[in-house]
Structure formats: structure tokens, C-alpha cells
Design brief:
This protein is 57% helix and 0% strand. It is built from three helices and no strands.
Length: 77
């Protein structure tokens, strides 16, 4: 009787870089979700480069998210 090789879930990262990419993406993504957005970022008064504060901060959050994805892609994760 041959034992079948155990198959690991593809949802769980296998490397240290995979864990870093996953956790950092999730933490940064939480900054764009309603609890944080509605309590901390929901301000229009400080205008930055002609845009309201909330737009600039969300642009920064989404840019960092894309950077994490590009970093993971270059690492081959």
C-alpha cells in the first residue's frame, strides 16, 4: 500500500516572503475598509495637491497595495 503524498493547501503561504506579502497586503488592505475609512480618513478639510485628504490617503493606500503585489510577483510567490 503506497501512501499518497500529503497535499498542502495553496491558500497557505509556504515561504517567509509569502507570509510577509500576505500579512502586509491584508493589513494595508484593512486601511481602505470602512471602519478605518469612516473614522480616521473621512476628512476633507486638509487639501493636499488640490485633492481632499481622503482621496490622497486612499490613493496612497492603493498604491502601496499595488507595490506589495508587484514585490510578490518579482519574488515569484
Amino acid at each position: 500500500m503506497e501512501s499518497q503524498p500529503t497535499r498542502r493547501s495553496h491558500f497557505i503561504p509556504r515561504t517567509r516572503d509569502g507570509w510577509i506579502a500576505t500579512i502586509s497586503f491584508l493589513v494595508i488592505f484593512m486601511l481602505a475598509m470602512p471602519p478605518v475609512t469612516h473614522t480616521l480618513l473621512n476628512r476633507t478639510e486638509p487639501w493636499i495637491i488640490g485633492l481632499p485628504f481622503i482621496y490622497v490617503t486612499l490613493l496612497a493606500v492603493y498604491t502601496v497595495l499595488i507595490c506589495v503585489l508587484v514585490w510578490a510577483l518579482r519574488r515569484g510567490l
